[in-house]
Structure formats: structure tokens, C-alpha cells
Amino acid sequence: MKRLSATILALCFAFAACASDPQAGGSIRWPEIAPAQQVAPAPSPATDLQADTWFVIESDVDCFLFTSPKGLVNVTKEAGPLRLKGKFADSSTGKTETRSYKAKWIYTIEASSAGQCEIIVLPVGAKGEDEAQRRILNVLGAQPPPEPEPDSKPKPKPSPKVVPIAAEGFRVLITFDNADQSGLNEDQQKAIYGAELRSYLNSHCVLGPDGKLREWRIWATGMDVSGESKIWRDAYARDRQSVPWLLISNGKEGFEGPLPKSFNETLELLKKYGGQ
């Protein structure tokens, strides 16, 4: 009986040994815990980057340079040696100076928009994240324009160019009051009835749809222009503050206003928009 008990106990130890040995086909599996990854070093303290200042990085090896978030700075990569003139983030004076950089690669960083940006530099061919170098920049961005003083008035914006006739080509319309010409001086009469102005218009105005008639008109007020083209009906219908009235257009810009009292001034206006 004692011999039988000893035999059973020996068999139990044998089975236990087999179960604890993975090579023996046991069913127990221990979890395999991967070694903890190394924590990247904390970034260096933040550096201020003014709007008109360069932050320059030199490297003797080619690098990848990343910014996070994007859009706060502009990065330029150039081969050295390099000579730069401007203001630099590490300057103690804040004044414009000239510097020479002799490294193989030069990375210049300039402010674009205000915010905090992380610069990450990783050498090409690096084997791990631990080789990356980091720096935080407080990007101050472009300076906003100064606010106007309380009593100052904003400067008026330039008015858009007048285009009395949108169609392409040089066209002229003179409107006058045929019933009352007492207000016309000699030069204005010369512009309305003289041959010199008509000669200029015939040589510079574009041809009309018929291919014969030049696109200029000298019309009295109150005329029936219903038989004319839409271009001239619309031009004739435009507001006139007085008569005689001069309208000039080359399709891109033009003039609308009282017919000048000087013939030479009228001719100069025509040449301004229609050429010499």
C-alpha cells in the first residue's frame, strides 16, 4: 500500500512538471509584456519670435523640420554657407545686423500668425524619436495696424473707375441744348460744331455694327433715339447734371462731366482715354 501511494505521488509530480514546462505542451500561457518605451525629453523653454525677426537653425546634417500646429510660421531651408541681414531672435540688441552661417544646412523660421508653435527637428536617417530636438516658440505674428485717434477721420477710399459704356472700344457722346445755346462759349461751340474734334473722333473711335459709322455722337437734348442701338440708348439715358455734357468711354474707364470751357482741355480728355 505504501509502495502504491509513493508511485501515485511520483506520477503527480511528473505531471505537474510537464504542465509547468511550455516545451512539454502545457496549456498555461503567461502574458508577454513589452518593455516600456522611453519618454521623449520635455521641450525646451519657449522663445519669443517677433514678426520681423528670424529664428535660425544650423545643421551639419540634413534634417526633417516639422511645425505643430501648421500655419503659424514659415520655414525656409537653404544650403550653407549663407549670409543674412536682418533681426534675429537670439540677438541681445534687437537691431538689424548681418550674420554669416557656415553650416551645411540653414533653416530660417519667420512668424506668420500669432500663437504657440512647436518646432521639431529630426536628422534624416534617425533611428528613433529620441534623436529629435524640440523647441517651443511664442509666435507674436504680424503687428496689427495702429488704431486711429478718436478725433481722426478715416481717409476716403478712392472711388471706382467710371465706365460709362461697358462695351469694348473708344466711344464719345456730347449732349447739348439746341434750343438755348446762349451759355456756350466759343471753345464749346468749336467742340460741338468744329471739324477738328470730328476728325479726331473719326480716326480714334471704333466702327459701329454696320462697319462704316464711327462710334461717336453729338446729340441735342430731347431727341428720339429709339432707333439707335442699345449702347447709345443707354448712354443717352444716363444722368446729366448739366448741359453741354461730355461722356467718354474706352470700355475700361472713362469720364462723365460738363463739357470743358476750353477746347484744348476737351481734346486732352479725349486723348487721355482714346490715345494720341
TrEMBL record:
Residues 1-19 form the signal peptide. It comes from the Bacteria. Residues 141-161 are annotated as: Disordered. Keywords: Signal. This is Uncharacterized protein. It comes from Telmatocola sphagniphila.
